[in-house]
Amino acid sequence: MTALKEYQRLEASGLWRPTPDAQRTEVIVSIGDATLVISDMQERPLTHWSLAAVERANPGKRPAIYHPDGDPGETLELADDEKDMIAAIEKLCTAIERRRPHPGRLRLFIFLAVLAVVAAGAVFWLPQAVRRHAVTVVPQVKRAEIGAALFRHIQQETGPPCSTPEGRAALDNLARRIPGPRGPGHLEVMRDGVDGTVDLPGSTILIGRPLVESYDEPDVVAGYLVAERLRARQTDPLAQLLEASSVWASFRLLTTGEMDEGTLKAYANTLLTRPDMPLDTETLLEGFTSWSVRATPYAYARDKTGETTVGLIEADPFAAEAPPALLSDSDWLRLQAICGG
Questions:
Q1: Side-by-side strand order, sheet with 11-17
Q2: At CA 215, angle to CA 213 and CA 221, rounded to 5?
Q3: What is the mean pLDDT of residues 212-226?
Q4: What is the pTM of this model?
């Protein structure tokens, strides 16, 4: 199914260029539920663009040229004869734009809220109230934009993520196997700078390379993903960002829908050095049961002796029977090879 109900399947041919210096490649473009999928002529996925982040580089002109938000160097060109695909993309972009927050209305709301708070004398209550309200009203599209901006700043410290078409497909399969509350989200394997996992607003989780390369089975990385899903359930990643920022960052997000780059850069550095929020054994066991993942491999990965994670080992919900497979053997081998290990 596609994101548009009138189409069961919609495909077109186009010219894709991953970087400004690369040659354009003939590709097949298709619309999924939430992504624009770009595949080679053998229908092997090359990349996925979030529909919420697709931008038109030359509005009203032909051939139509698109790029992901924040990365104008990667382009997709659709010829004049691909009218159905161009019309579908434009329709989706228009619909997404209509759902974005309207700054004028938000400014009025904040003005009235401030007056009410001042009148009530609740000066010390205001900062937390603004942050909580921002977390409540910011839509998933904006969360994804904030997560993408953080990811760009993180890459300045870690370098780009590991990426091959086969590895990308395996990561997408793993994301579907351990989805978040709003869907599978997006997974990236980082060469350096990430030891475990890092959760970004918009359901993107960064995975440290050792979790993929150092273990014979995907159970360990799956366990780390379960833990991140549970942390996000307890404390929203956007709430963590706003809590670490000034109250004015929350005000700006509410009134303009934007966050300044300085705030994002500072928080990106914090994410790479911040220790994981601890989770109690009962919560972890509920998560492993819910996502059908063995707890023992994760427990030994956290503590080789098993002394501090004995509760997970002894109460592993799948100690006696194997859960549904996380990945096929071929997918796991492709994932292990994603960084050239």
A1: 45-50, 35-39, 25-31, 11-17, 75-78, 64-68, 54-56
A2: 85
A3: 95
A4: 0.64
